[in-house]
Write a structure and sequence with these properties.
- The chain has four helices and no strands.
- With about 90 residues, it is mainly α.
- Helix 2 crosses helix 3 and helix 2 crosses helix 4.
- It is elongated and about 40 Å long.
């Protein structure tokens, strides 16, 4: 990620943390395709992957107050997604 892109990402997150929810949508659009691929890879089911991605974005939004500005959103979010997928796999058993 370029410095400019990281700066834009940080600014979007800062605005979300300040309560401007509309600035979360660009983050969703930026990471949704990769998140879906990761979830399908873990879950092996397109519908379940879609649900996992949606839940992960909701959980990430609710946890943004704990996100450290200046860090990359991607690894933080993908960890939330992987945890969501693991929870779903546990519930399947």
């Amino acid at each position: 990620m370029t410095d400019r892109a990281r700066g834009l990402e940080t600014e979007l997150i800062r605005k979300c943390q300040a309560g401007a929810r509309e600035f979360y949508e660009p983050l969703v659009h930026a990471y949704e395709p990769e998140a879906y691929r990761v979830a399908v890879g873990i879950l092996g089911d397109a519908d379940a992957a879609h649900d996992a991605v949606q839940e992960a974005f909701i959980k990430a939004y609710r946890a943004l107050d704990r996100f450290e500005l200046g860090r990359s959103f991607r690894p933080w979010f993908l960890q939330i997604l992987r945890n969501q997928c693991r929870d779903m796999l546990r519930r399947r058993k």
